Amino acid sequence: MYRDEVYWGRPVPSFGDPQAELLILGLAPAAHGANRTGRMFTGDRSGEFLYRALYAAGFASQPESWRRDDGLELRNCYITAALRCAPPKNQPLPKELRNCQPYLERELELLRRVRAVLALGKIAFEAYLRVVSESRDFPPRSRFRFAHGVNYMLPGGRPRLFASYHPSQQNTQTGRLTPQMFRNVLSDIHHYLAS
Hints:
single chain; alpha/beta; Uracil-DNA Glycosylase, subunit E; 6-stranded mixed sheet; 6 strands
């Protein structure tokens, strides 16, 4: 489908508002999405779903994104991923997650205004907990169970953790994740940030 295009084909940087209160944490660049375009959730069906919802919620300047230079801006929102490169067969290895963890750790240090983290999928959810649970004041990670729509107040003034199923085609085309389900999570985040 994209054989005439030049692929980005290297680690994909995060992007968005560096003063954001909302951090969205995905799994990894899609093989023919961000791995091709060079911007997270850009140029694939997951991005279509995500940006349409972010636009409706006021977090994005436009409802779709197909290229890195298409004018999309995020508002009070920043997007990153647990992995920076597209994993083979879309199955990240534990070693790959460990290799990319320092990048996520550094971003969390730099993004000082984040009050809410939205983890897209169980792997992103667990990656975030792995990073923030390394201090002594953190309870066992097993107390935080992934499920769509759950959210947790984390100790020590850490950002509140929200969870959603990943907006993959597998989830959206089967109805496991509907636009309304995702809007409900974003609405919860809006209410939290407004409080």
